[in-house]
Amino acid sequence: TLDLSRNRFSGAIPQSLGAISYQPTLNLSYNKLEGSIPKHLKFKDPSIYIGNELLCGKPLSKKCTRKQQNVVVNIPVYSPKYK
C-alpha cells in the first residue's frame, strides 16, 4: 500500500506516478490536489481521490474544464524493481 492521504499535498498529480512498475494500492485522499487525473494512471477506484475537491476527470464524475486539462506536472518517480 502506498498511503499518501492527509499529507497536505497540493497541485496536480504528477504524470510520472503512472510509471510505477509495481501495482500498489494507492490512497491520495484528503490532500489539496487539483486539475485532471492523468489518463494513463492505473488507479481507477474513485475513492482514492476523496477529499480533493479540485480534482476532475475519470474515474471521478466531475468533468474538467479546458484550463484544468492543461495542467501537467512531471516529477521523476523512483520505482525499485522487486523480484
Short description:
With 83 residues, this protein is mainly beta. The chain has one helix at residues 66-69, and strands spanning 2-3, 10-11, 26-27, 32-36, 54-56.
Entry keywords:
two-stranded parallel sheet; mainly beta; single chain; 1 helix; 83 residues
Word description of this protein:
- The chain is mainly beta.
- It has one domain (2-69).
- The protein is built from one helix and five strands.
- It has one helix at 66-69, and strands at residues 2-3, 10-11, 26-27, 32-36, 54-56.
- The longest helix is centred in the last third of the chain and has 4 residues, at 66-69.
- It starts with a strand and ends in a 14-residue tail after the last helix.
- The model has no long low-confidence stretch (mean pLDDT 82).
- InterPro entries: Leu-rich_rpt (IPR001611), LRR_dom_sf (IPR032675), RLP23-like (IPR046956).
Distance between the termini: 17 Å
Number of helices: 1
Number of domains: 1
The H/E string reads EEEEEH
Percent helix range = under 10%
Percent strand: 15-25%
Strand arrangement, largest sheet? 2-4-5
InterPro entries: Leu-rich_rpt (IPR001611), LRR_dom_sf (IPR032675), RLP23-like (IPR046956)
Subcellular location: Membrane
Keywords: Glycoprotein, Membrane, Receptor, Signal, Transmembrane, Transmembrane helix
Membrane topology: Single-pass type I membrane protein
Task: Compile the SSE list and pairings.
Blueprint (H helix, E strand, L loop, with lengths): L1 E2 L6 E2 L14 E2 L4 E5 L17 E3 L9 H4 L14
